[in-house]
Amino acid sequence: MTKAPRVALPVTRRSVSQASGLRRAPGDPRPRDWHRTIPGYAPTPLVDAPTLAERLGVGRVLVKNEQQRLQLPSFKILGASWAVHRALCQRLEVSPELRFDELRDRLAGHRHLVLTCATDGNHGRAVAHMAKLLGLTSTVYVPNDLSQPRITAIEDEGAEVVRVFGTYDDAVRYTAVQAARHPNQVLVSDTSWPGYETVPRFVVQGYETIFDEIDDDLRAPGTDARTDPHVVLVPVGVGALASAVISRWPGDTHTRVVTVEPDTAACVQQSLALGAPTNVPGPHLSIMAGLNCGEPSMLAWPVLAAGVAAAVAVNDDEARAAMRDLATAGIVAGESGAAALAGAHVLFRSDEGRDALRGLEVPADATVLLLNTEGAADPDSYSRIVHHR
């Protein structure tokens, strides 16, 4: 198992226009308008963390805290719910302008439909949660090494969980085969492959709600944070969320998008360094379970190649330390969510990171945005790491 370099810059940069490939078409419904119709919707907080800024030696650190979103400990429900909505509206041949309760009512005569996906944790739990809310069933495929607490959390949403004896990428391929064999299954994947692009595009568009909320906070009356951040650090698995970040802040703005991955599963970093999508063979055994992916999404790749300014790889010890640091700032971050802060430490406190920052023209008093993508998705693991060390 080869570990990735600490910081890598893309070998080439593509046209900025490629970073807009996943945006909604003019006139399409806004995901946030639909999310607001889901019971319990509320914006997640944008936390000002001066203690973290002091440790990093930057002007300001803001944390978009997705530790709890629509009853789940992860941002994934935003992409999954929008993709489920759009996929079901297409299946039923009804308008995507339907509210949540209207869609649920329309499904009364279609209880045979089964939502399905592969997951390394949070996406599958979100798809299962949506199935439960809409009165449908779900089947979720997981890699063999997924922890039992994460599997139990998916099962608690009412899903049938099937272990695939392989990696996350093996589970993705197996799920696609199973969905093709069963016409009643509605596949809701957050990664893409040739011939399967529409639903993953909806997943990325669903994350737009995060950035609408950030914009509201940055530009709220009486705040002093009315400009976009200089650096955004985003944990990355197959690249869906990172491509959404780039769609919001493409490479022609002053904002630099930096991806963070486990050093044993840094498929986006290696792809950027080689200039082409690259597979990083497993097994991928990092504690950052949601980031244990061996290849970037085909749909996300052109956007990542156009808009990622730097790619950082972190190890498990760094993720654990970041979880504890975030806890001292009052933020609950799981292993994958804490990767953003772990990457910030590498970027701003290491020689390799500082060299990259000079090339990216990031000011010394930069405003840094960290995306905490999950809370305590595995409560037992979180407790061991944060409270017992």
TrEMBL record:
Superkingdom in the source lineage: Bacteria
Single Gene Ontology BP annotation: alpha-amino acid metabolic process
InterPro entries: TrpB-like_PALP, TrpB-like_PALP_sf
KW tRNA processing (keyword) present: no
Annotated stretches, region: Disordered: 1-41
Keyword tags: Pyridoxal phosphate
Cofactors (names): pyridoxal 5'-phosphate
Gene3D superfamilies tied to this protein: 3.40.50.1100
Tryptophan synthase beta chain-like PALP domain location: 39-346
Biased composition (Basic and acidic residues): 25-36
Protein name: Tryptophan synthase beta chain-like PALP domain-containing protein
Gene source species: Wenjunlia vitaminophila
